[in-house]
Every structure is written in C-alpha cells, then in structure tokens.
Specification:
Elements: H1 2-52
C-alpha cells in the first residue's frame, strides 16, 4: 500500500506543477512577451522615423 500512496502523491505533485506551469505561461509569460514584442516594434519604428524622417506629404517642387 505504501508504494501506491507514494505513486499517488507523485502524481498529485506533478499535476499541481503542470497547472502552475500552465498558469505561469498563460498569465505571465505570454502577455509579457506580447507587450515586449509590440513595444520593441514601436521603438524600432520610432527610431527609424527619427533617422529617415516621419512620413508625410511629399516636399513641394
């Protein structure tokens, strides 16, 4: 019986860790990566526009 109880404890602990990993990935890591990606793209566009001048009407001839 002791082996079966130990196996059930291991299974419960593994399930708890899998739920924790899922919640960490979906609630913290993925939103953080999304914000970092959009922020990085915005920063890159901002820096590009500082170098190449912002878009606008063509200069008069």
């Amino acid at each position: 019986m002791a082996v079966a109880d130990g196996d059930a404890d291991v299974r419960r602990r593994r399930t708890r860790m899998e739920i924790f990993a899922f919640l960490f990935l979906t609630a913290i890591l993925m939103p953080g990566l999304a914000v970092a990606t959009v922020g990085s793209y915005g920063l890159a566009v901002w820096i590009y526009q500082m170098v190449a001048s912002p878009p606008g009407p063509p200069p008069p001839h």
